[in-house]
Amino acid sequence: MKEKINIFREKYRANPGWYWLLWTLFLFPLLPEYISPFILFSGFIVFKRQWSKLNNNALLGDMGKAIFILTCYMVISGIWSKTHILSSLIGMLWMGCFLIYVFIANIVNTKEKLKTAITCMNLASGIIGIIAVLEILTYYLSLREGNETLRFPNPLYFDFNKLIFEKIPVDIVYYRFAARASATFDNPLILATFLVITNPFCAFGSLFFTHSRNRKLSRACWLFSTAGIIATTSRGAYIAVGLTLLIVLVSLTKNKKLLRKVLPFVLLVAISTPIGLVIRYKNSSTDFLSSTENRFDIWRFCFKEFIRSPKNLLIGLGAGSDNVHTLLRDGHGLDRTHAHNLFLEMLVEGGLIYFVIVLVAFVFLVKKLYALSKNRNKLYMQYTVLYIASLTGFLMISLFEFTLQSPKELIVFFALLGFIEATYRIAENHIQKTPDMEEQEERVMITK
Question: Is the pTM of the predicted complex or chain greater than 0.70?
Answer without folding.
Answer: yes
